[in-house]
Structures are given as C-alpha cells and as structure tokens.
Design brief:
globular, disordered N terminus, 234 residues, Immunoglobulin-like, Ferric Hydroxamate Uptake Protein, Chain A, domain 1, alpha+beta, 2 domains
Length: 234
C-alpha cells in the first residue's frame, strides 16, 4: 500500500509540473493584397499527434492557449487554402508571437512577417509591452554570461543601479519583481546560460498575476526536462 501511495504521489507531481510548463501562441492573419483582417481562419499547431487550434477574430487576431513550452510550426487554413510551417517558440508561462501573417490566395506568394528578436511584443488583449529572449537568442548574446547584462540589452527601460541591482525607468529603487520558474525571488540567481530557457521583461501594463508591483517584472525560466528532450529530438 505504501508503494502505491508513493507512485501516486510521484505521478501527480509530474502531472502538476507538466501542467505548469504551458504557454500561448498569438498573432494576426491578414490578406496579402488588401492587408485586411481575415476572419474565421483556422489556426493550429501539432505536438506529438495532438492538435491545438483556434480561429481568428474580427481583427484577424488569434490566441492558442495551454500549449506545452517548445518550438512549433503554425498552420493557417482559409477558403480551402493552407499556409504551413510558420516557426514560433513558446516559453513557459509566456507567449510566442508569430507577428503578422500575410495570407494570399496563392501560397506561391506567401509572405510571413515574423517579430524580430528582442523586439517589443504586444499582448493581443492587454497591449502589454513585453521583451522576450529565448534560449536560441541567449546562446548568441554577447551578454549570455550575465543575467543582468542580458536584461539591460533587451530594453533601455532597465538599467543597473549603483548597488548592482536592476532598476526600471520611472520606478523607485527596489520597486520591481523577479519571477524564477513561477516563484517570486528577491533577485535573479546567477545561472549558467545553458540552463536558461527564456527571459521575459514586462515594462508596463502588467498582467494581473504580476500586479503587486508598480515597477516592471523580470521572468526567468530555466530549461525543463521537456525542453532538453525537444532539443535532443531536433
């Protein structure tokens, strides 16, 4: 009986962990020629045989939620035509942004505008300014051996104070929040760059779950078992 209880505990712990390693994909689909929003286009990604999908709204925007963190290929279907293979990286508790997808009637003319690395992203619902750096960007960064250096390289709205702590422009010293793997922290731990999966910096209009600070938020996520498994698979 004791062994059964231990197995149940371990399996439930793994389930909780896997449920926590989720993110979202957002983007906008517009017509290639008219640049008008495409409504009711079907957008989906696949992961190990499972399909995650949604439809675009009146503004051509879409959001696919509760997706395991990782790298995906986004597909769009509209009026019996399909655009496949738009790459996007989804961080834990964050979102991957495809940018504006220009969908043409003939996919020989397909053009996809993808958000540039380190560019300020905007949440489709909350218009939240977010700066994102995934593990691929981190590997190429000249500041990869310094978490503070990487954060300050992502946006000029963050600087290092005289005492070595990060400080957001317009906020009081110490009035900022650090989140590491979903847990609040007093400061950012010094981790090797190879262990970091994603860094996100919120500089305003914070989501409700980060709403207990008037400054910004730095969210750091270490690589999980699933990230390493995906890397090995690729």
């Amino acid at each position: 009986m004791k062994k059964v209880l231990i197995l149940l505990f371990l399996s439930s712990g793994g389930w909780v962990f896997s449920q926590g390693a989720l993110g979202e994909i957002i983007g906008t689909v517009v017509d290639l020629k008219s640049n008008e929003a495409i409504i009711e286009a079907r957008v989906w990604v696949e992961d190990n045989g499972k399909k995650y999908q949604t439809k675009t709204d009146l503004d051509g925007r879409f959001r696919i939620s509760a997706i395991p963190a990782g790298t995906y290929k986004v597909n769009v279907y509209y009026l019996e035509d399909t655009l496949k293979g738009i790459p996007v990286d989804v961080p834990m508790e964050g979102f991957g942004n495809t940018g504006i997808i220009r969908f043409g009637t003939s996919q020989d003319l397909q053009v996809v505008d993808v958000t540039a690395e380190y560019q300020k992203l905007k949440n489709a619902i909350n218009s939240t300014p977010v700066y994102n750096m995934n593990f691929k960007d981190i590997a190429k960064s000249t500041q990869k051996f310094s978490i503070k250096g990487m954060v300050t390289s992502m946006t000029s709205e963050v600087r290092v104070a005289d005492d070595g702590e990060l400080m957001f422009k317009g906020a009081r010293k110490g009035d900022m929040l650090y989140i590491q793997d979903g847990m609040k922290a007093r400061s950012m731990d010094q981790l090797p760059s190879c262990a970091i999966g994603n860094i996100m910096v919120y500089t305003g209009g914070l989501p409700a779950k980060y709403g207990d600070t008037l400054g910004g938020v730095v969210v750091l996520e270490t690589k999980s078992y699933f990230d390493l498994l995906r890397e090995r698979g690729n």
